[in-house]
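new request in #modeling-help
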Amino acid sequence: MSVGNSQSLDHQPVNDDCQGSWHQHNPRKGQFTMRILKTITTIGVAGAMALTLAACGGNAGNAGNAGSDGASSGGSIENLKIGISLPQKTSENWVEADGFFNDTCTEQKLDCTLQFANGGVAEQQNQIDAMITSGVKVLIIGAIDGTSLGTQVEKAKDAGISVIAYDRLLLDTEAIDNYVAYDNFQVGVKQGEALLEGLAKIKGDGPYKIELVAGSNDDSNSSRFFNGAMSILQPKIDDGTLVVGSGQTQQSQAATQGWDPKNAQSRMDAILAQNYPGSEVPDGILSPNDTLARAVLTSVEQAGKEQPVVTGQDSEVESLKWIMQGKQYSTISKPTLPLVQNSIALAVKLASGEKDIKELNGIQVDEEQYNNNKKNVPSFLLEPIVATKDNAKDVYKDEPKKLEAVNSVG
Amino acid sequence: MSEQFKQLIGGNIRQLAMVAVLIAEIILFQILTGGTVLSPQNLQNVISGNAYVLILAMGMVLVIIAGHIDLSVGSVAAVVGIVLAVLTTSMGLPWWVGVLGGLLVGVLIGLWHGFWVAIVGVPAFVVTLAGMLSFRGLNQYIGKSNSIPVPEEVRTLGAGYMNFLPPIETGNWIINSPTMLLAALGAAAVVVLKLRSRAKLVAAGASVPKAWVMWVQIVFASALLIGLGWVFATGRPGTSFPIPGLIVIVLFLCYNFLARNTPLGRGVYAVGGNRTAAALTGISVRKVNFFVMFNSSVLAAIAGMVFVGRSTASTPFDGNSWELDAIASVFIGGASVWGGIGTVGGTMVGALVMAFLNNGLQLLGAGADWTQMIKGLVLLLAVAFDVLSKVQGRPSIIGLLWKPKPKPEAEQATKEA
């Protein structure tokens, strides 16, 4: 939060200063601001000058802030201004995204502003507003809540800015160009398949007792994961192969408020106390991600029961260790780098005026699956990969940090 | 008959309001769940799973009595949790170094908050709002938003059991002996305290209820303690009354004594009741303010460590909206929003009301949506009930319940001073 705010605040006085001195409206105001700037940056006046000059140069390039003449002067991709707005920095994939976005932007000499909205929805709205004001050409948005950014996204469209939804879909708005994500329905499907596979492999013949865990109700991906998994599991529940011990088969019952592991752990505590007396155990637990997988495994362990087959997602380092130890059965690999690279590639295409893009680095556009209640959003969907103990070394061979975790066990 | 009944339950029927709510709630869910609520496993879950709220609330109630608020406790707990995890797991230091390091962080943050509130005079709401933001950021900075596991010994603090004595095995039962020992100690303490307070009253020439009234009270309280002990002791072999619960009891005894029987504790009430009057009677307002803010952060540190012990890892989610749980417990427990009124014991009852409500709804399989709606409503109704009961200028129902009986006038005088 602090980083985001200080960045956007930094921009304001600098802009004022530039406009003031160009138009000669109020030279004294300009000098005054300058003096303040100099006083504040006690470390070096030269630093402040450089900052001001750089900002002026940037503004001169795309002076389309007030008028309409700047729109056609797209020019080269170099120094293309991209605004990247991401949600709270609460899991490893967002931390990775931070690094990869910065690296990719530096490599391609793009002028990217990346901000995390650690303070919540309102902060993300403010950050995006500031990005629009600062004159970005493309917005890449990983929304905290896909329904709450409508105003900002409409404003961006009016300003001629292209909008890409990153990883999480923006709902209830026409003003979105594309969606780049791992196919989250497929994530759920693969989790369901992994659960069945693990049950057959580890728990012998059915029928199996299972429990279901879903993500937070305020995240639009939660129902995709859950519905994807249930598309595999429901037929097996109907034919009696699977029995949900607690009977809690609705997503709202299985939901984990705020994706907070504490909530999943205490819910599983209650389910075990209520539905699995004595030595009874669930054979498997469907979990939408690794953090919640570890929480429910901890709950089962603390109840002194045998470990069930548990699915996951995100390839968190701690869960990779648990998978190699045989505690967690599976996770889903959705490498962040391809997602970041494809988003940037798409941003560049959109900025250079391409419309109705059908193909991106070999991925065909999907115009069916993702409807945001206003339109079918043309989506570029990457294929998720299931990782278990058997294939982990292969899946993570290009990700040093994760491979290290895999190799650190046995 | 009604007079005798009044004496039996301690003089004023309204005192018992929130305890009655707690008992009614437990009985209701016990029936609805077909007997799961009072099963050993579930009671252990409730105690281990809510120990952090109980600990936070003890610090929070003193802050609120003194007329302040502490919004930072969740973030402080999160920083302490990640420091503990990094020191032990990432840096490989022994577990006790991690715990001491975590406590030190709590102490430093406590000094920081105390300094700004008591010395500089910035309102606690602002200081701790700033702390809530900064320390959340610090948690993410230190942990790089990763989950980091904590060692086995710390897990024992958060979810472990007492097994320092061999269990008693008789026929079908395997009974955890430390738990029964604890219950027996508790029952003995009830007997001694009751007899002593009666002897004091008699010596002072005050009128006392009939002897049988006291003995019924003693038998009832002891039976309750032994019964609860029995439930905890006869769970799955190897389990007992949870260690985090033991930590809560020890802290409760300390803070209950501190709030009721020490000059510092009485000073907290005096400052919260009327700051100017307190200052004029020679109480150091600055010292009291410093103490409550400092203390809250230290307890948040302990809560954070107990919590990561139970969840076996420090995660970036730790501490999210914990301050709200703690504040809700304090107000359900009968504290006044305006300061000066509230008790540690009442707060514990308030926290347990919320804990059993949460637990009961989860046992019934109510979704997160329903749970939140019902919890919000219960918070509102509980405090409204308390406010209505104070309309005639009487002190809090729950406040009365935990007040030392021998000197009600003295306490009243302190509050109005």
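bot summary: Chain B has two domains: 15-160+244-406, 167-241.
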